[in-house]
Amino acid sequence: MMFMEYVYAALALLLGCAVVAAILYGMFSKPTPHKKLRSRSGFTHGIDDVSVPGDGTND
User: What is the model's pTM?
Assistant: First the structure.
């Protein structure tokens, strides 16, 4: 083997190890909890207070 073949083999081995490590990390790491979004209850508060003709409520 020539010197460059050893270099290519080492790079291929390193790349293979990196792929296996990334797969194992993805399998065994805990998922991060999503950041809670702002509550929309303030925007919809009181939306049901008004009856609309034909909505079935006889207010």
Answer: 0.51
